[in-house]
Structure formats: structure tokens, C-alpha cells
Amino acid sequence: MHKSGGYVAGGTTPSPTVPVALRRVLDLVVSGEATSRAEIARRSGLARSTVGQQVDHLLHRGILQELEARESVRGRPPRILTISPQAGTIAVADIDTLSTEIAIADLTHRVLARDTVDIPVDSGPQAVLDGVTERLLGLLAEHGRDPARVREVVVGLPGPVDFQQGCAVRPTGMPGWDGYPVAERLRESFLAPVVVDNDVNLMALGEASQDNVDTPLLCIKIASGIGAGIITADGDVYRGADGAAGDIGHIRAIGGGEVLCSCGNVGCVGAVASHRALLRSLGIPEATGEDALHGAHALAQLVANSDPRALHALRQAATEIGEVVAMLVHMFNPRTLVLGGPLSELRDDLLSGVRAVVYQRALPLATRKLTITTTQLGTSAGIHGGIALATRDIFSTPGLARLLAAERGQGGA
């Protein structure tokens, strides 16, 4: 079971411990390994009476539900155990440069509602978080979800994040965000544990949660900057010692020359090969008053029309990104490489360019089983990653202790 190891605002650990038998029963249901009392008893080795006691306890607390199977069988219909959709709600905010994707979901990973908050990140943390909070509370009200039963809030930020403290650390292009207590600020509004992570980490988690996707997984987001999310073979995010793992946009590009980067250095790959850098080189505004995604739309149209300058710029960017990715493939030996962000929508030119460099530069041992592809989830990857992160936290041993304590305080189901 996942151990986040990070700071969870408001996540005080209740004194009661979680019984081992209850932990085992819930693990089997959450993982889908067992969906009935008899299956749980067989797989866990627990006595049927013990399984029955723990299942009844979880049913009474509103964490599990037991339903009759739909398929027709002889005799008494079998009873199926699942996580109750009413066990609680997860709130996710995936903050990006120009806007924020938000969603609420139940503990079965089912997205209940989504929306977009059109406040640029450079408006500052108070404006963005006020807008996000207001809209999330609105979604909860519109869909009949009790704010008191929000079990965790997950926030993705487009910059380096101190996962332990729940804040951004010296992010570029994000005035006012450095050290701002994002987790504490949202804890005040939702009275629930809050986890803050880098947006690419959430994107990588979302992609890794899809069927038939193998780990280790390396996810590259090419947007206003360039970042990487790394998912280990065990399905955990690799964040590094201080949360700076994956900040690859500031690796020096081979063709970077003296191009000034927002970090103050020159020749960074993000300064020459990001989506923003491409738009700048082609003289395309990133956004207009009428269209926040004007740059992405205009570039896509130029590429579709086979504009020579646009195609050349895109292929040059793919080459520069491919050089960095080839180095990462040697370092981490991923089984899956996913390209995301606005440039990933220009699938053919970007993907073929990155693939060509990776297979040319990386040794066969590192690439013989490597799958290189673009995002399956598109702009919703961060949302799904946030939901995956939250559910793993909620059903970890500390999270389950909090959940049981909250249900006792709220009178069970």
C-alpha cells in the first residue's frame, strides 16, 4: 500500500490503530482481488467469522457497500462488496499557467464533475486559490456532496514543489507562489487533508493508472516549460530528496546557444524547445483576450497547413527534447515514455522526432522494450493522477485511521 511520506495539512493521526484484519479485508476489496466475503476469507486466510465482523464494521461505517450481483444465477444471487460511492469525496485542482482544471470524485475513482477556472497562475496564489475554492465548493453543492465528507484535496502546481511542506519552491513565472502555504490555505476551506504536488507528477500518475500501461513510466510535459514525472515499478512517484526530481527544463540543450531562460541561465532546453518557446520563435501570441489557447490553436493550424517555418521549429524542438529524453532513458530505463502537454497534440511530428533521437542515441538494452507514445488522457491526466494519489493516501493505514475516526465523528453512514 502506498506511503506518501509527504506533508498532509490537517492530517493529524487519530489515536486508534487500524486492526490488521480490517486492513487486510479492505485491501482486498480496494484492489479488486476479492469482491465477496467468501473470496476474502479464501485469499486472506482469515476465519469467515472474522471476515464477517470486519465487513459488517466497514458497512456500518459507510465505507463499503454490499450489492446483489446483476448476472442471473441459480439460487440466491451472490453479494458483491465494493467501496461505497457515499464514503466520501476527493477534490482535485490541476493548476496550469493560464487556467486550472478542477474535479470532484468519489472514492471509487468515478469523476462526478469537472470544470475550468480561468485565472492565470501569475495572478498570484490568493486569486487562484480563492477562485478554485469557490468553484470546488460550488461543484460539491451542485452534486449533493457534503463538504464535511471531503476526504482529501490534491493540488498540482506547474513548478517545483516541496512535497513535505505543501508549497511551491522558487517557481519561475509564478509571482507570489514561492513558499506560499497552499496546503494550509486550502485546509482552512475544506477541513480535510491537503496534498500539493508537481503537476507533471500528477500527470504521470494519471497515465500510469490506465489499463495496459507498464511501469516504470516516464512522462514528459511540454508546455510553458518542460518537466518530467517518474513513476517507479512499484507505482510510486519518484520526487527526489527535495521534490526537485523531474525539473528537466533547465538541462542545457545541445542547440541552446545563448538563449536566455527564465531561470537566469542560458541555453536551457525549456527556453528553446517548450511550447512557449516555439510560439515565441514564430511570433505567435500565447493567448488573446478572446482565446486563452490562441497559441496552441494557431500553431496546430500552421502545422496542418505544412507551414515550412512551423514544421522546422517543431522538428528542431523534437530533436532537442529527444536528446534530453535519451539521457533520461539511460538513467531510469522506463518501460513506457509518455509525451504530454500542448505539443503532444501535434502527435506525428513531435512523436516521430523524439522517437528518432531516442532510438539513435540510447543503447538497445534501454530501448528494446520501451513504448514511446503520447498521452491517453490529454488535459485530464493530472485530474486522474490526483484522484489516484488521493485514494491511495485515503486507503493507506494512516488514511484509513482518519477515515474511521471521521465516520465515528459523523455518526457512520
From TrEMBL:
Pfam families: ROK (PF00480). Belongs to the ROK (NagC/XylR) family. PANTHER family: GLUCOKINASE, ROK (REPRESSOR, ORF, KINASE) FAMILY. This is ROK family protein. It comes from Actinacidiphila oryziradicis.
